[in-house]
Amino acid sequence: MILAMLWIPGPTEVRPELLAECARSMIGHRSAAMTELIERLDPGLRLAFGLEPDSSSQVAVHSASATAMMEAALIGCGPRVLALVNGAFSRRWFQIAQLLGKDAHAIEANWGEVVTSDALRQKLDVDGPFDAVTFVSSETSTGTLTALDSVADALIEHPDTLLFSDLVSYIAAAPVDFDANRLDFAFAGVQKAFALPPGVSVVCASERYLAQVESQPRRGFYLDPMRFFTGHAKRKTPATPCIPLYYALAKQLEDISSGATLPEGERHLAGAEAWTARFAKHVRMRAMTIAWAHSHGLELFPDEAHGSPTVSCIRGDSIDVAALVTGLAERGFEISNGYGELKGLTFRIGHMGDHTEDGLGELLAAADEVLAAQPV
User: Whole-structure pTM over 0.70, yes or no?
Assistant: First the structure.
């Protein structure tokens, strides 16, 4: 069976070179080779999270899903949590807070909209103080972007409140600037814009967050942030890690940082410049997708100002969404129907990771063919 190329919101397409890294011979996770492998990760991770050169924030990798990192973030903070909810995954974080017995509160926006800075300020002023605020930067279920700086700015008058961000379909596609945006805990799985198989998460934490973790009496074992951050710093993971994905992540971070994943004319770039060029590629692919949608009289589900850099969720008001998804699959391209209650009403194109503008052009041309065959 021939599989269609993945243009879904994740997991996304993985380059053969990265899959080959997953097939390397196994090593002992307490060996010198493992120490060397972990040490390869930090330079690229610091660039991915946009850490300042003198930053005291720490990066880590954990063999767990991004959902597990939602739970880990909350294990390390005090009881009062405020969740910004505007889709399925931001709601999941709120639900995890409730399940952990936190004094959990939520500000809810309609799917496809964002919680405004004014609404957040008002909630903080009236019902605060809160120990932490959680939000999803790119809500994959709706393709909606919440700007990191807008949330950070709303917390200026509440400097003791920690700020947690889900970067799952954002990091490696757009600048995080962890320190500048005053984040305290941020994370992502690697199956989105990092363009790797799922199975590990990348994480960053501020010094003050890690200090608060130490004051929490019940942190468990596997999801104790102090345990996996300290373990990463000592190059000793708390349990046997997913070694194949460590190899693939190290290779991808080095390839991105060396410019190897960029369009041919930009492969001379390196370091922060190479990451910036990768971000710009995602901006262009988003613009291509929106322009294509407009050419068919279609609109993004969120306001364009809040469109995700990696996932375009497009209203399917005038088309047969299921037929579009099926027709593209028959032509070798897989996109996603709408998520949950949006199924049949929207469809999602994941233009992220190592996908190219030429490849996106081929997908959109195939979509033209499918739509041309639909009855008017």
Answer: yes
pLDDT value of position 339: 96
**Does 264 reside within a domain?**
no
Percent of the chain with pLDDT over 70: 99
Q: Do residues 137 and 23 share a domain?
A: yes
Q: How many angstroms separate the CA atoms of 364 and 291, rounded?
A: 10
**CATH for 139:** 3.40.640.10
Q: What is the pLDDT of residue 374?
A: 87
Closest Cα partner for 44 from 325, 249, 211? Answer: 249
353 near 11, Cβ under 8 Å? no
Distance between CA atoms of residues 74 and 109, nearest Å: 22
pLDDT at 2: 60
Side chain identity, residue 10 = G
**What Cα–Cα distance (Å) separates residue 3 from each residue in 105, 185, 313?**
43, 37, 23
* Model pLDDT, residue 171: 98
> DSSP string spanning 308-349?
-SSEEEEE-TTS-HHHHHHHHHHTTEE-EEPPGGGBTTEEEE
CA distance linking residue 289 with residue 360, whole number of Å: 8
The pLDDT score that the predictor gives to residue 3 is: 77
Let me know: does 268 contact 259? Beta carbons within 8 Å.
Answer: yes
- The H-or-E segment that residue 205 falls in is strand 201-205
Single out the residue in 203, 221, 254 at which a domain terminates: 254
Together in a domain, 111 and 206: yes
Per DSSP, the three-state class of 68 is helix
At 17 the pLDDT is 97
The DSSP secondary structure of 132-153, one letter per residue, reads EEEEESEETTTTEE--HHHHHH
- Please check whether residues 224 and 302 belong to one and the same domain: no
353 confidence band (pLDDT: 50, 70, 90):
very high
Shared-domain flag, residues 241 and 275: no
Both 24 and 157 in one domain: the answer is yes
pLDDT higher than threshold 80 for residue 314 = yes
Give the range of the structural domain holding residue 123, as residue numbers without chain letter.
16-254
- Which pLDDT value is given to residue 191? 98
DSSP alpha helix (H) spans, the chain: 16-21, 32-48, 66-75, 88-99, 117-127, 148-154, 207-214, 225-233, 243-258, 272-295, 321-330, 357-372
| 290 and 223 share one domain | no
d(CA 208, CA 354) in angstroms, rounded, equals 34
- Could you tell me what percent of the chain has a pLDDT over 90? 97
